[in-house]
Amino acid sequence: MSRSLFYLVIVSVLLNGFHLFAKDIYVNNLIGDDNNLGQLADLTGGIAGPLKTIGRAIALSGQGDRIILASTPIPYKETICLFGKKQSGDEFTPFVIEGNGAILDGGEVLPIESWSYSGNNVFRFQPSNLTHFQLFENGLPLKRIAISPESKTPPALQPMEWCVCNGFVYVCLENFKRPQDYRFSYSERTTGITVMQANNVRVNDLIVQGFQVDGISIVNNTKNIALNNVIVRGNGRNGLTIGSSSSVVVSHALFGDNNAAQIDVAKDSLLLLFLSEIKGTEVSEHVGESMPTELTRLTRSAKILNRGGLIQQAGAEQVAAESGRRPKIENLWEKLTPILLIQPLRKAAEEINSVTALKAETLAPPIVDEQKNNTSDNQTPNTASQSHAEKSQQENPKTNKSNAESDAISEDDQFSF
């Protein structure tokens, strides 16, 4: 190697980190083998062919790598944990999981021997964990009937309704039907994708469903996470949980039929919603009437549980320009078609400058533990300053707009993809 070429390599490594050597790792749960190297998508290269599991791909991965999943008829029955620098990227070379329309599924089939008859077309079984739970028939979630935890007997259930009572799951079946006549499954694995202390990560074209707790969990202080063209559905607690002091871009995504909240946003975290649809119901009681009108509308229609974060949406011009490719909530339980977006996350980051920044102190107050309410004064929202801010906004709309724009998230600092 010539001296000039040697110096060129050294300079490239210094500027871009060791992502200069980032690689693609292929996974195929049908034809793959975890003894392979994962360097090729097919078997033409022998041992260089695809891996079988995502877990093995993550074990072999490094900074800035791209894990490419084959979309097969069989869901990937595993969990994903991205942790630390090894599964991080940088501004130019993010760590990427390319789903290609694949399904990451946390469910398992209920064995027939698990069931016992309770009477009146009602059958029951006892799962190992009832903290969060989801029940499916033929891949679709069944309607859950909420009852008091103190109830000792289940209520009258209609066909294909279920409830949790006294440590058991009760399901009402149709007349002359038994559990073996159905394809029942339940949420067994804990969380689909966990991102912890791993920054600059993208997840593209992936369905995440059927997990016991969350579909996707972004742990505290995790920056520059992007979810592009994902469907997160039918999970036992939340579809997406964003921990405090984290920043996430959600683009062209669908969220729905998750039991607690579709998206849960913690204090001091940042969420940019870009051309996404969310299926939800009315918000919980803790959401106050003092919330700004636009966020109240967004939260109540979308089932976003905001605990004091910053939520922004794409501007009207961008929405109109991209409306033809906006996903539709009626396709929540359909197959996912991968889409090609030209720098979608950079466009989303630029778009953030055209919307009004909603400061954390003007959002819904954080949930306060009633037992600690009397001893933790710093958990109580400063309603006086909030009222002053609202009054100032009414009296000086131009000044408020200017201040909001100056507080908008910097593309380089927060969403630098």
Class computed from helices, strands and strand pairing? alpha/beta
- Helix proportion of residues, in percent? 10-25%
Q: Which ranges are low-confidence, i.e. pLDDT below 50, for 5 or more consecutive residues?
A: 281-302, 348-417
Beginning-to-end CA distance, first to last residue: 33 Å
Residue-averaged pLDDT: 78
Overall geometry? globular
**Estimated radius of gyration:** 24 Å
Q: How many strands?
A: 25
**Which band does the percent of strand residues land in?**
25-35%
Number of helices: 7
User: How does the major sheet shape up?
Assistant: 10 strands, parallel
- Can you tell me the number of structural domains? 3
Structure description:
- This protein is α/β, with parallel strands linked by helices.
- It folds into 3 domains: 22-87; 108-186; 193-417, no CATH class.
- The protein has 7 helices and 25 strands.
- Strands 1, 2, 4, 15, 17, 19, 20, 22, 23 and 25 form a 10-stranded parallel sheet that branches. It has a 6-stranded parallel sheet with strand order 3-14-16-18-21-24.
- The longest helix is centred in the first third of the chain and has 14 residues, at 3-16.
- The protein is globular.
